[in-house]
Amino acid sequence: MGEFSRRTGVSQRLLRYYEEQGLLRPSRRPSGYREFTEDDVATVKGIRLLLGAGLGTATIAELMPCMAHDGETLVPACSGMLPDLNRERERINEAVAGLLAARDTLDTVIAATVTTGGDDPEACRAAGIGV
Fold first, then answer.
1. Spacing of C-alpha 20 from chain mean position
2. CATH topology for the 1-77 domain
3. I need a labelling partner for 127 at 20 to 30 A (CA). Which of 52, 61, 94, 104 fits?
4. Are the C-beta atoms of 8 and 44 separated by less than 8 Å?
5. If pLDDT is split at 50, 70 and 90, which confidence band does 119 have?
6. Among the residues of 21-129, which ranges form H helices?
7. Exposed, middle or buried, 76 (CB in 10 Å: 0-12/13-18/19+)?
8. SS3 state at 91
9. How does pLDDT run across 3-22, given as a tens digit for each residue?
10. Which residues, including other chains, have CB under 8 Å from residue 69's CB and lie 6 or more apart?
């Protein structure tokens, strides 16, 4: 597992987590040790790619049966996964819109902030500023 961790750049703890989630299925030797293949390297790269795209492990587990190895990483193998990918994209768009709205609200608060000439909260309270 240590060598595989070095090859993928993913901690052993995360690799075990991926295995627990059913995302990674290394074969086992009679001794119980995991045996990883080049396909497993590509699988981990694909998992990292999908995590980086904002997908959760449960969604990735749903998509894995529709992924194939291209020799380097996992790639979509069927159009049946498009509804799931589009749903995730919409979820991310909604999260981005929420963050942008929060930033706009913060910008409004910043622009409306009264300059008191000092950064001391006690001075603000003494001047009757604040709650």
1. 17
2. Multidrug-efflux Transporter Regulator; Chain: A; Domain 2 (1.10.1660)
3. 104
4. yes
5. low
6. 38-52, 57-63, 82-112, 121-126
7. middle
8. helix
9. 999 999 999 999 999 999 99
10. 39, 42, 43, 75
For 36-83, what is each residue's pLDDT tens digit? 988 898 889 889 988 998 899 998 998 888 888 777 777 788 888 888
Query: What is the 8-class DSSP label of residue 79?
Result: G
Domain boundaries, the chain: 1-77, 79-131
**Do the beta carbons of residue 16 and residue 23 sit within 8 Å?**
no
Q: For residue 28, what are its two tokens?
A: 């086992």
Is 84 in contact with 56 (CB distance < 8 Å)?
Answer: no
Round to the nearest angstrom and report the end-to-end CA distance of the chain.
56
User: For the chain, what is the radius of gyration of the CA atoms?
Assistant: 24
Residues with Cβ within 8 Å of residue 9, at least 6 apart in sequence: none
